[in-house]
Amino acid sequence: MSTAPGREDPEAMRAVDRSKRVRVTAPVSSAAPAPRSPSLSREVAEQSDVGGVVLRSLMRSQLRLALVVAGAFLAAIGSVWAVSELAAQLPWLPGLPLVWLLIGGLPYPAAVVCGIAYYRAATRNEQRYAELLEDRP
């Protein structure tokens, strides 16, 4: 039976494949397997020195982040106070001074923006910490 050029007979291919098969095995060794270093998650769980260092590192980064965000929020509130002192004499709407709008309206969006920024950065810190704790082969 003749096949098209470029196509081979499936039965002939099976016969060829069986003759080319070779079984490969790993050499038998009497050496003990290399000891695995303990993972960071085990170090943290056992409260060892290494685990304590990693945990303190996370706590320091979260504290630093909280202080930076709180400082930014206080600076924003301070700037609202400074602008309100400068603009105390300027009326903006009839019967509603500009100072009231600044003091009553700006701190809330600033608090929301600071909260969102803190949440995102804290999540990123915790993800980095979790990546450190993943068991590595």
Automatic annotation (TrEMBL):
Native species: Sinomonas flava
- Entry's transmembrane regions: 65-84, 96-119
Record's keyword terms, sorted: Membrane, Transmembrane, Transmembrane helix
Is Membrane among the key words of this record? yes
Positions of the UniProt region annotated as Disordered? 1-47
Q: Where is the composition biased (Low complexity)?
A: 24-42
Protein's name according to its UniProt entry = Solute:sodium symporter small subunit
Domain of life according to the entry: Bacteria
User: Where along the chain is composition biased (Basic and acidic residues)?
Assistant: 1-19
